[in-house]
Design brief:
Layout lengths: L20 E5 L4 E10 L5 E8 L2 H16 L10 H11 L4 H19 L9 H11 L5 H20 L27 H11 L8 E5 L7 E4 L17 E5 L8 H7 L5 H5 L2 H10 L3 H5 L6 E2 L4 E4 L16 E4 L2 H21 L20 H14 L18
Antiparallel strand pairs: 1-2, 2-3, 4-5, 4-6, 7-8, 8-9
Helix pairs in contact: 2-3, 2-5, 6-9, 9-11
């Protein structure tokens, strides 16, 4: 028997049922706290884990987790911002071009910089730092689009009880870099584009050599010396005029940009599109979805009621309108219809009848990028440089 006068060793205190656990992690050299959230259907226990340098810090973190649980918020410990944004992009329905733009922007700016960050650890200070870094290279519009993507992604996480607060809504955006000044075609530039689209002329009026030696490709050039291929000659290079016959150009890029190796039909098949874009100021999405049942050639009216958006409606209610066709637009559309009827007969069963006014050689609709590429190719052919197919870039020109 033991000595009754010797003091007894106090019993080790055990946690009561439902209490959180705190222990020292020898590997990570910090205190860790665990909360039991029940069991999975397969019987595996579900736990939430927090860390801290001291027991007091761990207890505070456990209290925060309990507050989230009481509010119905269950943020997975491994749920990242990249997963949050991808879940939102997957859940929405927009037109393909819009989704491709948002995905590309997220892949380029969001995922590399803050994608691995845990959503539960993402604070307002982190968001401010992220946008301050982006502001060194992006303009205000790009910053606004990226903030909108993050804000709506986290808002979806809130709806699904994955996070309690949307920190992106709490911050203000920095100024960002100054954007490119807006521009619109002058009447002279628009006339040159229409002339190039009709095949009657182009802005490149001579062929030149841009090299020191006797050998070298000949380039198509404007009166000011700008080359069609976009090449900038060396400052010591000698610019030698060869002639004024553009078809004798040997530079492959120049020939491709100007369509010198294409047939006349390929060069002229979208003349009517440029006429409508420039004389009526139609948007690219409206041109892509324009159908023949909305074109009254006998009455000289075009009804702009559709667009290439997901819903098919025009951008605004005022954009839904009927316009009087100028004479040159009626002539161009009649020639375009004859050309399209010939393409339909040649395509046979391969033709896809979508009743579109402007379509590819098999009847399929143009994508936004395809239309932009053709528009910029025609503006380069006209000798006015690269332009996008936007209504802001086209003036109202006389017929």
């Amino acid at each position: 028997m033991g000595n009754p006068s010797q003091p007894t060793k106090p019993k080790k205190r055990y946690r009561d049922h439902g209490d959180d656990g705190i222990h020292w992690d020898k590997i990570n050299k910090c205190y860790m706290g665990t909360i039991s959230l029940g069991f999975k259907p397969d019987g595996q226990r579900v736990r939430r884990t927090v860390r801290g340098k001291t027991k007091a810090e761990v207890k505070d973190n456990l209290d925060k987790v309990h507050a989230e649980i009481n509010a119905g918020i269950r943020t997975p410990a491994t749920y990242t911002i990249e997963q949050c944004v991808k879940d939102w992009l997957y859940s929405i329905e927009r037109d393909d071009h819009t989704l491709a733009t948002w995905r590309s922007q997220a892949k380029k700016w969001i995922y590399p910089k803050i994608g691995p960050t845990k959503l539960k650890d993402f604070q307002a200070a982190d968001a401010e730092k992220f946008f301050e870094e982006l502001a060194k290279s992006l303009g205000k519009r790009s910053l606004t689009m990226i903030k909108s993507t993050l804000r709506r992604s986290i808002r979806r996480a809130q709806v699904h009880n994955l996070i309690g607060r949307n920190v992106v809504e709490l911050i203000d955006l920095p100024a960002g870099q100054p954007g490119h000044p807006s521009r619109a075609m002058t009447q002279e530039q628009a006339g040159r584009v229409l002339k190039a689209a009709s095949g009657k002329g182009m802005g490149y009026v001579r062929t030149v050599k841009a090299s020191k030696g006797h050998y070298g490709a000949t380039h198509a050039a404007t009166e000011t010396g700008e080359l069609a291929c976009g090449t900038k000659p060396h400052r010591n290079a000698t610019i030698t005029k060869v002639g004024r016959e553009i078809k004798e150009t040997t530079c492959r890029t120049c020939r491709s940009q100007l369509g010198l190796d294409e047939t006349d039909n390929a060069n002229l098949r979208l003349e009517a599109l440029f006429v409508l874009a420039i004389t009526l100021g139609l948007r690219p999405g409206q041109l892509r979805k324009l159908t023949w049942d909305h074109v009254d050639l006998s009455g000289g009216v075009v009804h702009v009621w559709r667009s290439a958006s997901k819903s098919g409606d025009t951008k605004t209610a005022k954009s839904r309108r009927s316009l009087v066709l100028p004479k040159r637009a009626i002539v161009a559309l009649k020639a375009h219809k004859v050309r399209q009827d010939r393409e339909r007969r040649e395509a046979g069963e391969a033709w896809r009848d979508n009743d579109l006014v402007f379509c590819q050689e098999n009847g399929d609709a143009y994508t936004s990028d395809a239309l932009n590429w053709r528009f910029s190719k025609m503006t380069r052919k006209a000798g006015i440089g690269h332009w996008h197919a936007t209504r802001a870039g086209t003036p109202q020109c006389p017929s």
